[in-house]
Every structure is written in C-alpha cells, then in structure tokens.
Automatic annotation (TrEMBL):
Protein name, entry field: argininosuccinate lyase
NCBIfam families membership: argH
Domain Fumarate lyase N-terminal: 1-287
PANTHER family: ARGININOSUCCINATE LYASE
One Pfam family linked to the record: Lyase_1
EC class of the enzyme, as a word: lyase
GO biological process: L-arginine biosynthetic process via ornithine
SUPFAM superfamilies: L-aspartase-like
Gene3D superfamilies documented for this protein: Fumarase/aspartase (C-terminal domain), Fumarase/aspartase (Central domain), Fumarase/aspartase (N-terminal domain)
Domain Argininosuccinate lyase C-terminal as annotated: residue spans: 350-418
Domain of life: Eukaryota
Length: 444
C-alpha cells in the first residue's frame, strides 16, 4: 500500500512550486500573528535550505516515509530547523489546497515554455514562407492533384491552425493561473489568511472564489490535455503532409540528416522518423486526455485520492508537447525544398479550371465553361497530346468560338496562382498578407 500510495517519484518535480507556496503561506501566517517574526525567518531559512538540496541534487528521499513532495519537504524542514517551528507551517493549510496550488504553479510555468516553443514554430513557418515564396507545387484534394498553389501558401495554412493554438493556449493559461491556496482541506481557512496576498505573491492572476472548487477542480489539467490533443492533431496532419512530400515519388522536400535515420538493413533508406514520431505521439496525447476524463467523471465533491492520478499524464503530456513543438521547429527549419520536383509534379490538366475561368471572363456562364474545359481535357487526351496547352487555338475554337489568342497565357502555373489574389488565396500578394496577419499576432 505504501508504494501504491506514494507519488514522490513523480511529483518531486514540483519541489520549487511547493517551496514557494510554503514561504508565502508562512508570511501570511505571520501577518495574522499565528507565528512570530523569528519563526517566520526560521521557516524561510529552512525552506531555502530544502530548496538548495533539491537544486543541487542532494535531497535524500526517505523511502516509505516521504509519500509525496509536500510531506517530504515538511519532513526535511523539521530535520533542518527543528520540528517545533516546522510543525507550525501547516496551520490552516491542507495538502489539498497545497497540491492544487503547486500543480497550477508548475503547469503555468510549463505552459509558458510551451508557448515560447510554439512562437518559435510559428516564426520558423513565417521565415520559410517568406524565403520560399517563389516555389509552386500541386495543391491536393482527396490526395489527387487539384490546382497549383504556392508552397508558402501550404506553410501558411498550418500557421493558421498553430496561431489558433497559440490564442487558445493564452486563454487556457488564465484559467490555470488561479490561486487555490487558503482553501484549507475543503471548507476554507480559519485564520483569515489574506488570499489576495497569497495569490499576488505567487504570481497568480486571481483567487478561486470557492474553497470546495479550490481543492477539487482539475478542469485546468483536463483543459490542458484537450488543448494538447487539438494541437497534436494539427502537428500530425502537418507531419503527414511532409512525410508524403518527402517520399521519392513526391520529392518536394528533403529532411536534414539530423531529423532522419537510416535503415539497419537497407543501405539506401532515409526515413522520416522525426515526422513519424510527431504523428504517432498525437495518439499518446489523445489517450492521456481521454484517460484523465474517465478519472474525473462522477467523482464526488472535493478532494478524493483519485485526483493524484492527474499528475503522471499531465507531466507526460506536457513533456511530449514541448519536445514535439521543438522537434517540429527543427524539422521545418532544416529541411530543403526541391522546386524542380514541385514544378515537375504540376500538369496542364490542373489548369482546366483556369481555362473555364477564362471563358467566364468572356461572358460564358460557368456551368457551360466547366463543360467546355472538360471537353478540352478529353480532346487533348484523345489526340494523344501532352496537355490542353498543345491543342492550339483552332481546336479550342471547335469547342467554343469565344477562345482567342490571349488564351495561351492561361497555360502558365505562375499565372494561375497569381489569379487567386482575393484574401486567403495563393497569389504572392495574398500570401504576403497572410504572413503579415500572423506576424501581427505574434507582436501582441
Ligand atoms: N499527493 C497528493 C495528490 O497528488 C496530495 C494530496 C493528498 N491529500 C490527501 N488528503 N491525501 O493529490
């Protein structure tokens, strides 16, 4: 039971949050004359010593005694400054408000690391989108070649998802960063500690206004996992595209050696392991989110030990999110693109819509032009021509008298992308507008 019950081997990573919380709590006890100035300074001195032991890796966990980080720190504090004073620290406090406080502090700081990694990922996209603006490749629907798009347009599409992830993360942080300290075991603090002071000193944005919520709420853990799941679904789709683009058959991109591996058997192989892991780890994050929802569901009010089950999935999920974001940035900023391969994958039939649009500009209704353009594709095929651009004006005129000399400018991929200059399109000007929009958000 002792082993089954203990959480020290994983919650020890919250040692700093635990010590900060204790120091501020001790100050609040002194403000209410529960402890003297001398006792307060002894508690602070002792807590700093405990902190130093964790920081220089000399803290000796007492097996079978130290159940969790909270009891371990208090045990050690008593050994260092004497149990008489150390025993006053926990006055009016419970591990229930303590653990909720520590987890929120730890998570808030971790989310800040993830946020900065996510900003780096967005910047890597913006940098590439600007640098590679001239590259044109096929855009796909149903994985079938559809219309030409700029590679930068594809890059920017992913920044729109990641930008929403960033906005959601910033909103989520507000709900994580609320202070439960001073909730006691469940009913509140009987020594009138100044909860606004506790919150401010610990860097929280607000105080949780109900003590039962203070000790029992783990929505902030669930929401982090939900956030992570949606984010990883975006990462997995991004990775899947790049895996495809890096195959010999596509050859649009080539991963740097640092982010690929060879095969133990086939000497010629270069495998996109980084991208496959990014795709694969999304499953792990979804699973942890769903698992924790099962833990939360139908729990009775306030603290139940089930809640200790929040930490391992939370720690693993946030680790995975941080690592994955950094790896994705590394992959993108070091891969090389092959403009020739992208161009070679473009085929004239991908301009069939442009041909129809040409006739629309000559006054023909779109439904008709769609039919005529389709007929042009079939005709070129039946005549054994390499594409609709080889039909020539005479043959095109047999399909519609509206075709003129200027139709030849339609058979150009650059022309095709430049036509799509409305907001959100793939024209140079439109992609630059997208880059500007995301840059503005990063400046906020
Ligand atoms: N290790 C516990 C957790 O993570 C701390 C709170 C324990 N509280 C209690 N009443 N047993 O949830």
């Amino acid at each position: 039971m002792t082993t089954y019950n203990e959480s020290i081997h994983y919650d020890k990573r919250m040692y700093l949050a635990d010590i900060l919380g204790s120091k501020v709590y001790a100050t609040s006890l002194h403000q209410r004359n529960i402890i003297t100035a001398h006792e307060l300074s002894e508690l602070h001195r002792g807590l700093d010593l405990v902190h130093a032991e964790w920081a220089n890796d000399t803290f000796a966990i007492s097996p079978g005694v130290d159940e969790d980080i909270h009891t371990a720190n208090e045990r050690r504090l008593g050994e260092l400054i004497g149990k008489g004073i150390a025993g006053k620290l926990h006055t009016g406090r419970s591990r229930n408000d303590q653990v909720a406080t520590d987890t929120r502090i730890w998570l808030r700081d971790t989310l800040d690391e993830i946020e900065s990694a996510l900003v780096d990922l967005l910047r890597a996209h913006l940098g590439r989108a600007e640098a590679d603006l001239d590259a044109i490749m096929p855009g796909y629907t149903h994985l079938q070649r559809a219309q030409p798009i700029r590679w930068s347009h594809w890059l920017m599409s992913h920044t729109y998802y990641f930008t929403d992830d960033l906005t959601r993360l910033r909103q989520l942080r507000i709900r994580v960063n609320r202070c439960p300290l001073g909730s006691g075991a469940l009913a509140g603090n009987p020594f009138a500690v100044d909860r606004a002071f506790l919150a401010t000193e610990l860097g929280f944005d607000s105080v949780i206004g109900n003590s039962l919520v203070g000790v029992a709420d783990r929505d902030f853990v669930a929401e982090t996992m939900m956030w992570g799941s949606l984010f990883m679904s975006h990462v997995s789709r991004w990775a899947e595209d790049l895996i495809l683009y890096s195959t010999q058959e596509f050859g649009f991109v080539k991963l740097a050696d640092a982010y690929s591996t060879g095969s133990s058997l086939m000497p010629q192989k270069k495998n996109p392991d980084s991208l496959e892991l990014l795709r694969g780890k999304s499953g792990r994050v979804f699973g942890q989110m769903v698992g924790f929802m099962y833990t939360l569901k139908a729990l009775p009010s306030t603290y139940n030990k089930d809640l200790q089950e929040d930490k391992e999935p939370l720690f693993d999920t946030t680790r995975t999110l941080l690592d994955s974001t950094r790896i994705a940035t590394g992959v993108l900023s070091t891969l090389s693109i092959n403009r020739e391969k992208m161009l070679a994958a473009l085929t004239m039939d991908m301009l069939a819509t442009d041909l129809a649009d040409y006739l629309v500009r000559k006054g023909v209704p779109f439904r008709e032009t769609h039919h005529i353009s389709g007929a042009a594709v079939s005709l070129a095929e039946n005549e054994g021509l390499s594409g609709i651009d080889k039909l020539g004006l005479d043959k095109l005129r047999t399909l519609s008298p509206k075709f003129d000399e200027d139709v030849m400018q339609v058979f150009n991929f650059e022309h095709s992308v430049e036509m799509r200059s409305a907001v959100g399109g793939t024209a140079r000007e439109s992609v630059l507008r997208q880059i500007g929009e995301v840059k503005a958000l990063l400046r906020d």
